[in-house]
Design goal:
alpha/beta, binds arginine, 7 helices, nine-stranded mixed sheet
Length: 222
Amino acid sequence: KLIAAALVGTMVLTMAGCTSKTAETTGSEASSDAAGGTLVMATNAEFPPYEYYEGENVVGIDADIAAAVADKLGMELKIEDMAFDSIIPAVTSGKADIGLAGMTVTEDRLENVDFSDTYAHATQVVIVKEDSDIASPDDLEGKKIGVQLGTTGDIYAGDIKDATVERYNKGSDAIQALKTGKIDCVIIDKQPAEAFVEKNDDLKILDDTFDAEEYAICIAKD
Ligand code: ARG
């Protein structure tokens, strides 16, 4: 009888332990293997129209895509906003299930993550002041170029001869620096460039662009 009572006691304690553990981990860890769980999306919400803030909420094309994926999987979507160069580490470490951030598929990134089918075509463009002497990407030699840290624009800028590359956490900070004359141009994806230039009449986008890119969702290799 004593042994039976002890066993029952142990079982109750064990199950109580389980319940509270589940409650604790929900929301703080990605739970991609459980239907009905939470789908954690890592992004950098500084990139209109793909992800940006509307009040306190992250909205945009990528947020809509993730919501549709979560809906299809019967999961709840949670969006985590972070620095762009933290997205792949978040996905590889399992802190996030998917990275969705207007992210270009590159050979380097493919070494660390897998990508979904691509969902958008993009190009990197050059933003300059209306009165700039820079007329095409060929004129960037020796210039001060602003980019968003860790993006493909950052990589292109690094290849330009004698250029100084200023790396910003936000595309909007690079735009601010351009307006105040701290830098000569900004290299950034075309759609965010259009969104930024629309709000600033003293800026324009050059017609010539860099090579075509493709956006996709990144996920952990396993
Ligand atoms: N397409 C570029 C890249 O993959 C820039 C993406 C920046 N995205 C963002 N959400 N800030 O490097």
